[in-house]
Amino acid sequence: MRADARRNREALIATAGAAFAADGVSASLEEIARRAGVGIGTLYRHFPTREDLVEAVYRREVEELCAAADRLLAEHPADRALELWLQRFIDYAATKRGLIEGLRVIFAAGTGRLSDISGRISGALERLIRAAREAGLIRTDLGTEDVLHALTAIHAAPQGPDWRDRSLRLVQLVMDGLRCRA
Predict the structure, then answer these.
(1) pLDDT at residue 125, as a whole number
(2) In a domain, 112, yes or no
(3) Above 70 in pLDDT, residue 61?
(4) Where would a tag sit more exposed on the chain, N or C end, judged by fewer CB atoms within 10 A?
(5) DSSP class of residue 27?
(6) Chain centroid, CA 156 distance in Å
(7) What pLDDT shows up at residue 108?
(8) Cβ-proximal residues to 118 (8 Å cutoff; 6+ apart), any chain
(9) 1 and 74: one domain?
């Protein structure tokens, strides 16, 4: 792919991610193209269907979230890396909320289009939890599944103008619980 085509594709994915997080997958493709600085034809050349664009946005979000785990572990103490990653998860969850209808269509088609990324998020979380546990910074009686359940509950909270702030407070509560008795 030429450099300009790669830039256009990345601009479309980034712009669509913001639009889907704000307006859901029914966001205007014409508006996404305009905000990305390209024509609608360019959008359709890269993403022939709305589901193709949804998939690309979702893949990018998962890849960025998972890559953040290793970067944060390299830059911070393990418990702080986990906390920052959980905060980053809230941003991922906000985008995923906007993508949910499009993801349902993709999964309902039964094509397995996203099967290669299943388990990546729990794998990243497991690395963070293992590092924090080994450093003696969090409890040893709670594991990845427990934290995933807490994240699922946070994600499922009713949408509202204060959802992100409330979710970040709940992440802090989860971290306080993980650090307790460490």
Answers:
(1) 94
(2) yes
(3) yes
(4) N
(5) S
(6) 14
(7) 72
(8) none
(9) no
* 15-24, long-range: CB < 8 A, 24+ apart: 16/53, 16/54, 16/56, 16/57, 17/57, 17/60, 17/61, 17/95, 19/98, 20/54, 20/57, 20/95, 20/98, 20/99, 20/102, 21/94, 21/95, 21/97, 21/98, 22/98, 23/98, 24/98, 24/100, 24/101
Largest CA distance in the chain: 57
100 part of a folded domain: yes
Mean of the pLDDT values across residues 113-125? 81
Give the position of tokens 């890396």: 81
How many structural domains is the chain composed of?
Answer: 2
Q: What is the pLDDT of residue 141?
A: 92
Provide the token pair at 119.
């388990």
| Residue 59 CA neighbour count, 13 Å, CB half | 13
- For the chain, count helices (H), then strands (E): 8, 0
**Greater model confidence, 31 or 162:** 31
Q: What is residue 111's DSSP assignment? A: -
First to last CA, the chain: 50
Residue type at 164?
R
What number is the average pLDDT over the span 48-73? 92
Torsion on CA atoms 128, 133, 139, 141, rounded to nearest 10: 90
In a 3-state reduction of DSSP, which class is residue 88?
helix
- CATH at 16: 1.10.10.60
SS3 113: coil
